[in-house]
Design brief:
CATH superfamily of the largest domain: NAD(P)-binding Rossmann-like Domain
Shape: globular
Number of strands: 6
Helix content: 40-55%
CATH class of the largest domain: Alpha Beta
Largest sheet: 6 strands, parallel
Number of helices: 7
CATH architecture of the largest domain: 3-Layer(aba) Sandwich
CATH topology of the largest domain: Rossmann fold
Distance between the termini: 42 Å
């Protein structure tokens, strides 16, 4: 029989809800906890996961639930504290949204911490395999538009959210 992995998800906005839905549809995962610091947001989502413990404090939930997987979908300015939460909870996998970090220094700090703990991480970057990106990739690889040496891009909205898709 396959192991069932216990998952705690912090940040129940749109992306967190997508992750919770995907985990809950796979019999190898059990969503044991959901967290969001905004009470109205947490209340909106709690009914969808009645077996999951819900709370505003992700660190307290992680300490109590000791998930196998700690997944967080939050603004990028709080990566390291949440990485530490996952490590302290005993999670064996920490999954989170892009960008990985706000600086190279922070990225190296994250790498050092997870390697020292023997924990794996995954950074979600789901658009990478979208059909629109694949079409551009195929077009460039085919040589149909010549040799591409520079690409300029613009994005409207949050820089760290959108621009990583253009790199």
């Amino acid at each position: 029989m396959s192991k069932t992995y216990r998952v705690l998800i912090a940040g129940m906005g749109k992306r967190g809800q997508h992750h919770a839905s995907a985990f809950s549809k796979n019999s190898r995962f059990e969503v044991v906890g959901i967290s969001d610091p905004v009470p109205a947001q947490l209340d909106k989502v709690k009914a969808l996961y009645p077996k999951a413990k819900a709370g505003a404090d992700a660190a307290a939930l992680a300490k109590e639930l000791k998930p196998d997987i700690f997944c967080f979908c939050t603004p990028p300015g709080i990566r390291m504290p949440l990485i530490k939460t996952g490590l302290e909870s005993g999670a064996k996998l920490i999954a989170y949204e892009k960008p990985m970090a706000m600086s190279m220094t922070e990225a190296l700090e994250i790498r050092k911490a997870v390697q020292a703990a023997g924990v794996k991480t995954v950074v979600a970057h789901q658009h990478r395999y979208g059909p629109h990106y694949s079409a551009v990739y195929d077009l460039i690889r085919s040589g149909a538009i010549g040799r591409v040496h520079t690409v300029y891009g613009t994005a409207v909205g949050w820089l760290m959210h959108l621009m990583t898709h253009l790199i």
